Amino acid sequence: MALVVICGQPCSGKSTAALFLSEALKDTESKLTVRIIDETSLHLDRNQSYANMTAEKNLRGVLRSEVDRSVSKDNIIIVDSLNSIKGYRYELWCLARASGIRYCVLYCDVEETHCRKWNEERMEKGEASYNEVIFEDLVRRFEKPDKRNRWDSPLFELWPYKDGIEKSASAILDAVSYLTKKVDSKTHDVKVLQPTIATQNARFSEANSLYELDRATQEVTNAIVEAQSQALGGPLNGVSLGYGLPTINVSRSVGLPELRRLRRTFIKLTGQTSLSGPPPPSDADSAKRMFVDYLNRELGTA
């Protein structure tokens, strides 16, 4: 039915705005199905996810893939993340267009100094926050939405520091009205995006592949860590991942830091290969086969 992109600087009140918007939508007579997609719901740590450009690119791919699988004409998806890159907001807009649904952006407009103060307060309280280096980098690279861009329109603006955030805030009420208003031949202020032939035939297969690759390699890594704990540091021979999948054969004990390094290298190599050859695997089993073969080559003779 609709895709809502929450946008704003780090620690600008986005999650609170997403929650109030979700509650306001559920309070309507339509009894809508609303889902919030964010880093927490996908078990992603914010500092690890923004630690470097590669990690951030992977994060956006995982979020985009989850959005792609979730959007439909029967629900409203709220993407609660920084969504700070205009090119990324364009990609989300394309997903909405491909699904033939409504789209809007809810922007939390807060000055950098206030965001910085809120982040420091969260850090002092032991709450979820950004470390200082990551925070400053994200603030520096933030690209403010512009309602003249189709992927930033319609744009509903909140000012959390000045006005606070309430379920009755005018921006939230306006967004609810836009998202739930009945559309007929006389309706001119609500736009339902129409898919093109290109968007109907291609639905960001790269994003799906990245998500499956990330999930599958993590499952293999977890299996190795679990098997090593049971083997008490001895060699791993014939660790099974399931029917039809190759077995893991590691001739020595491998620490978690090394496994993580190998996993990152494998994902990077797979992505580079897809630029000039076939795309990365789009299903979990294929990704696991490739990763196990890679690990067996790298670690089997060490």
Order of helices and strands: EHEHHEHEHHEHHHHEEHH
Q: Average pLDDT across residues?
A: 86
Strand content: 5-15%
Low-confidence stretches: 200-204
Oligomer: single chain
Q: Provide a count of the helices.
A: 12
Give the CA-based shape. globular
Strand order of the largest sheet: 2-3-1-4-5
Please count the beta strands (DSSP E, at least 2 residues each): 7
Report the radius of gyration as a whole number of Å.
22 Å
Strand count, sense and barrel status of the largest sheet are:
5 strands, parallel
Summarize the amount of helix as a percent range. Answer: 40-55%
What separation lies between the terminal Cα atoms? 54 Å
Structural class: alpha/beta
List the defining traits of the structure above.
alpha/beta; 12 helices; 302 residues; globular; 5-stranded parallel β-sheet; 7 strands; two-stranded antiparallel sheet
Protein model, in words:
The N and C termini lie far apart (54 Å). This protein is globular. With 302 residues, it is α/β, with parallel strands linked by helices.
Short description:
The protein has 302 residues and is α/β, with parallel strands linked by helices.
Walk me through the topology.
Blueprint: E1 2-8, H1 14-26, E2 34-38, H2 46-49, H3 53-70, E3 76-80, H4 86-99, E4 102-108, H5 112-125, H6 132-141, E5 155-158, H7 160-163, H8 170-180, H9 197-201, H10 205-231, E6 236-239, E7 248-250, H11 256-276, H12 284-299
Parallel strand pairs: 1-3, 1-4, 2-3, 4-5
Antiparallel strand pairs: 6-7
Helix pairs in contact: 1-8, 3-4, 3-10, 10-11, 10-12
